[in-house]
Amino acid sequence: MAILQTAVCLLFLFIVNCKSQASFYTRGINVEALCEECDTTTGSGYVYHPKYCHLFVHCTIGQDKRVVGQVKECTRGLLWSQKVKQCVWPEESDCPTNPCFNQSLTLRDLRTCNGYFTCTDALRLQFNCCDRNERFSEVDGRCYKDYACNDACLPNSSNSTAKLQPCDRFEHPDNKGKYLWSISGTNITMDCAVGTAFSAEMCSCTDNADFVNIAFCDPYIYFPFDINIKDKMGKTASGGLNSWIRTSEPAAVGNGAVYFDGKRQVIAWAMNNMEFKSNFTLSFRFKADLVGPAGEERYALVDNSDCAKEATFGVALLKTSPKTGTIHGGFRLKNGEAVTASSDELSLTSWHSVVLIKNGHKAELRVDNNIYPIMGYGLQSDIDRVDCSMTIGKGTGLENFVGYIDEVKFYKCVPDEFKN
């Protein structure tokens, strides 16, 4: 089975909202020129910031088909890696001005006039501040007297006598891996980087996360396909037309389902280059509408191969007779192994539910009420990733699906209902 690729997301990234900061980040660089070199065949792409390791440029295709660039900043303590197109820990970053590779270098904290980063252990960035009324100079990495510089120092930095900067981020009541960010009086839920948890003391996500007791596991992306081709969770833009939804299919959940005619596909852009680790759940319902004799054609249902690369997760349908078929699902892991499972034969004229799960070293394919364990060497390895988005109804190396697909849900965790 050809399984297709995943995507990225990423250690948590956040958009710089302050106009003065945004203009500073773009000063002296041509963002549009950088984006011209960026691969945006999947609708968006990422490219390094030529000056600062903790920034990157997100390139997207606008409504006028023009590529637009937006500078974004990694979570504090992380640096950009162009190799994997993601914010990573400093020792994993390929940025040429990474202070953890060259400890003679310093990195300015762009949010204050007196803050900077050093790396003394070649592993983690250390936050520092100049003394009171001093400004940090990124030209030579030194502090100079400047009475106009009176920014409060960041927590846990060397300037311990300074008044701490007010924190506009707060602990999420139910999830250590999230926090609430107060913007213009509105609290917005944000994700921490994978493997980190929010610290109110640091006003940031730190690397001492304990995710064993996450209270809820809600869908990260949810396509009900009732009245439009939109993600109900609001996490992703999607490719597709609302006119594809049919409300005449009585077995569909809710008010409708998308009908795929062999030429259509729905794409979830936000899953481009996402890091899945080993906590993954994909669920959906489908009903085929295939005609003609069976020649063991494989039809794409859901995978992440929208950019003509091999998927790292996928579910496909193998037509075994004019009215029957089998479901195949699995993953490509970071150790290079491809692990899959296949269902028993099922009717192509009925609705079926499918769930693909990886929970640590265990993985399985569920079709209706049957569980098919996914076996293979090295299942403790994480799911591999690729800079492709999740695609519904179409996949690289597979026939385009014909039929109905409904209730597509993707979780970056495993709901309790699927743990038994």
Structure description:
With 420 residues, the chain is mainly beta. The chain has two domains: 194 residues, no CATH class; 198 residues, Jelly Rolls (Sandwich), CATH 2.60.120.200. It is 3% helix and 37% strand. Strands 17, 19, 20, 22, 28, 29, 30 and 32 form an eight-stranded antiparallel beta sheet that branches. Strands 18, 21, 23, 24, 25, 26, 27 and 31 form an eight-stranded antiparallel beta sheet that branches. The protein is elongated. The two termini are 27 Å apart.
Task: Classify the fold: give the CATH topology of the largest domain.
Answer: Jelly Rolls
Query: Ends: how far apart?
Result: 27 Å
CATH top-level class of the largest domain: Mainly Beta
Low-confidence stretches: 1-24, 155-165, 207-215
How many structural domains can be distinguished in the coordinates? Answer: 2
Shape: elongated
Average of pLDDT: 78
- The counted number of beta strands is 32
- Summed up, the helix count is 2
Category from helices, strands and their pairing: mainly beta
Strand content: 35-45%
CATH architect. name of the largest domain: Sandwich
The proportion of residues forming helix, as a percent range, comes to under 10%
Radius of gyration: 24 Å
Major sheet summary line: 8 strands, antiparallel
Keywords: Signal
Protein name: Chitin-binding type-2 domain-containing protein
Signal peptide: 1-22
Organism: Patella caerulea (Rayed Mediterranean limpet)
